[in-house]
Every structure is written in structure tokens, then in C-alpha cells.
User: Which sequence fits this backbone?
């Protein structure tokens, strides 16, 4: 999503279009362009459904889209040819190719079926008594009847006059259209209802709670229809009194013939909405990098480079007799201390990378080893440097340690 989507546009543009509710919208992002409820200044409002997804983890969705694009391109020869002959820098052409691939792979099938089911439910809610089931496919009616039965079993009634109404939440900078408002005798207040038709809602709880909270905490409601570009803040209607602590989710998966209804925690949704707004604003910040000032003249010629000789470090004492390998530590000095090898990094410069000096140090270490275990550890430690004469030195040292011959001075 481009940062441009969050820029305020203070006037209508020539490319703005009017939706079915009479609301002007941007051509690029389809954001509603409406007057501010307080100032009256026309601006583009981020859609409530957009802000609801700011905190989503989109990894699985992105991977699914990539698979669908690959499937679509692979199954259509014309798209394969276009992909093979299109310059990688031609962004608009690639967008077109990917969109056609997604469409061919069936990526929009679920969305289209969901839109149709939404329309069917809205038609029924508008006037149940005049609803004609003979006009619609049987599989759609199966879902609709599941919806009707679920509402009846919970004693819920939808308010037809408040269906598909748009609200502006000035504090959050968002505007969006809810699905409906529901009443129930067991509730103190009516609730904003959200209808979802996807297969699963397991990964959408956070975004749904944010979305419905954005509606419930709106400042004003638009009349139907809105008077297009002629609309002013005086045309707004007051928000209906609704429950701001609890919303309603109606899950009606397409083609399943089943419907499930849930309460929505709007207090948690409001908290997440505030976080989403903060994240959105953070993403648009352009003041995080500050040009580095040039130093004063006194420091301009000062040599601030560090010394080329590294400081001495404390010895690394092996744990449980294990010794760091030469391949990892690039050690320089090995000394005998109470029969245990102690590794230090003194005078590192001069030995690192010099195999002959390293082998000389290994030979001296073998001659002064305190026990068999140390010798065995050295063999594993210095496998990259080990030679046949070191093996013989090790055998000689083992005989010395066993008392079979007197120990001579190391050489």
C-alpha cells in the first residue's frame, strides 16, 4: 500500500467518481471524499476496512496470491508469452499480467460469490415479506435460509432503515459502510452487525473487531443517498445510539448452508484501532533522518582512527574440558595450566594465517601436555594443522606421562 493513500486531498479532483450511495471517491484508492464533520473541509478518508487490516499478518495471504499468479500464468499460454517478452521494468504491464493470472486462476471467485450473497441478504432484509425466492439460485437460497434461521434462533431483528449506512470517524480519520444494525430483546442497546462470507474467520478476529469498532465510534452518519459533490457537513445525520462495548458478527460462509453468530468485543477493538492509527501515522513519517552536521575546524584534521593493535582479552577457560577449535577461534597462544589447555588472544597479529608458526605452537603444546585427555582434545582441536610428526610427539608424550622414560626439555 502506498503512503499516498494516507495523504489528505483538500478538494475534489476531475477523476473522482460517484458510487451507488452518491459518495464521491478517488479514482486510485476509492477513498470516500467527504467534508470534515467539524471544519467542513473536504478531504479523502481512509476506508475503515483498510485501517482494520493495518495490524494483520499477511504472510499466508501473500503466499496464496503468489501461488495463484503462478498457476494462472502457467495455465494460459498467452500470459506465459507476455511474461516472457515483457521488460521487467514495465510495472503497469506486469500488474496487468498478474491481475489476469489471478483472475484466470479463480482468485476472485470467492470474492464475487461473497458480494452476491451480501446483496441477497440485503435484499431480504429490506423487505422479507416481498422477497421472491424464485429469482435466485438454489445454492444461494440455502445460505440465505441458514442466515434467517440463525437470526430467529437468537431473537435478532435487523433494522432495514439502517442497512448499509456510511459513517465518519473523525478522530481516527476513517470512513466506512457497515452492513447493518441489529436489535434483540436481551440487549440494552442495538449493535452494529458485520456480515462475513469467507470460508473461515479464524485469522480475521482482530481486523473484524477493529472494523466494527471504527463504525460504532463514528461521529456522524450519511443520509442515503449522499448529495454527491454538493454535500456539506450540514447534510450529515447524527449517529444512531448503538452499543459501543459489544458488536455482532454474522458468519455466513458461501455455499455451506450454515450460519454462526458471535459477539464482538469492541473495547478491545477500539484499543487495537488506536494502535492501527498510530502505526499508519508512523509509516508516513518523513522526519526520521537528520543531515549530519560537519565537524568544527578543530576536529576536521584530527586523526580519530582506532589503534591497529587490539586490546588484550581475558583467557577463555574451557567448560567441562572442551576446547574451542582453531577453526573458530584463530588462537595464537597455548599454555599449560594445571593440566588444562587455556586459550588466549595475546599478540594475535603475526600468527593468524601463518601455518608454520601455528604448527610450531602446537608441537610445543604437545610436548607440555599434562595428561592424555588434553592430548586427545588437541588432536580434535587442531585437525586442520595436524601432521605425522605431531602424532609421534603425542605418543612420546604419552610414554613420558606413563613414566616409561624421563621427560626432556621441550624444543
Assistant:
Amino acid at each position: 500500500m502506498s503512503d499516498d493513500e494516507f495523504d489528505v486531498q483538500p478538494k475534489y479532483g476531475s477523476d473522482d467518481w460517484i458510487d451507488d450511495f452518491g459518495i464521491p471517491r478517488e479514482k486510485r484508492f476509492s477513498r470516500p471524499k467527504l467534508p470534515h464533520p467539524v471544519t467542513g473541509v473536504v478531504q479523502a478518508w481512509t476506508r475503515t476496512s483498510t485501517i482494520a487490516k493495518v495490524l494483520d499478518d499477511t504472510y499466508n495471504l501473500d503466499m496464496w496470491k503468489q501461488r495463484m499468479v503462478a498457476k494462472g500464468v502457467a495455465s494460459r499460454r498467452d500470459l506465459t508469452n507476455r511474461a516472457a517478452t515483457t521488460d521487467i521494468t514495465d510495472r503497469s504491464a506486469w500488474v496487468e499480467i498478474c491481475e489476469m493470472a489471478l483472475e484466470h486462476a479463480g482468485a476472485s471467485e470467492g470474492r464475487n460469490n461473497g458480494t452476491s450473497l451480501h446483496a441477497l441478504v440485503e435484499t431480504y432484509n429490506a423487505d422479507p415479506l416481498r422477497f421472491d425466492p424464485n429469482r435466485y439460485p438454489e445454492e444461494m437460497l440455502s445460505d440465505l435460509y441458514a442466515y434467517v434461521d440463525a437470526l430467529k434462533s437468537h431473537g435478532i431483528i435487523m433494522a432495514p432503515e439502517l442497512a448499509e449506512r456510511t459513517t465518519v470517524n473523525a478522530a481516527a480519520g476513517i470512513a466506512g459502510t457497515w452492513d447493518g444494525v441489529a436489535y434483540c430483546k436481551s440487549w440494552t442497546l442495538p449493535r452494529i452487525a458485520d456480515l462475513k462470507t469467507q470460508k473461515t474467520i479464524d485469522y480475521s478476529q482482530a481486523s473484524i473487531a477493529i472494523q466494527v469498532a471504527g463504525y460504532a465510534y463514528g461521529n456522524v452518519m450519511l443520509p442515503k443517498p449522499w448529495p454527491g459533490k454538493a454535500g456539506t457537513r450540514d447534510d450529515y445525520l447524527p449517529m444512531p445510539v448503538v452499543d459501543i462495548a459489544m458488536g455482532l458478527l454474522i458468519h455466513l460462509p458461501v455455499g455451506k448452508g450454515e450460519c454462526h453468530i458471535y459477539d464482538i468485543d469492541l473495547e478491545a477493538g477500539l484499543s487495537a484501532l488506536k494502535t492501527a492509527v498510530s502505526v499508519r501515522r508512523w509509516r508516513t513519517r518523513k522526519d526520521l533522518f537528520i543531515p549530519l552536521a560537519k565537524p568544527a575546524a578543530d576536529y576536521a584534521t584530527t586523526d580519530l582512527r582506532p589503534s591497529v593493535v587490539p586490546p588484550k582479552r581475558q583467557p577463555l577457560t574451557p567448560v567441562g574440558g572442551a576446547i574451542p577449535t582453531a577453526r573458530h577461534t584463530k588462537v595464537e597462544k597455548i599454555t599449560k595450566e594445571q593440566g588444562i589447555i587455556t586459550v588466549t588472544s595475546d599478540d594475535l597479529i603475526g600468527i593468524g594465517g601463518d601455518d608454520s608458526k601455528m604448527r610450531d605452537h602446537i608441537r610445543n603444546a604437545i610436548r607440555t601436555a599434562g595428561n592424555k585427555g588434553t592430548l586427545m582434545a588437541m588432536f580434535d582441536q587442531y585437525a586442520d594443522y595436524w601432521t605425522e610428526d605431531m602424532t609421534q610427539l603425542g605418543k612420546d608424550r604419552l610414554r613420558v606421562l606413563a613414566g616409561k622414560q624421563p621427560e626432556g626439555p621441550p624444543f
About this structure: Residues 3-283 form one domain. The first helix runs from residue 48 to 52. The two ends are 72 Å apart (CA to CA). Residues 142 and 257 are 5 Å apart (CA to CA).
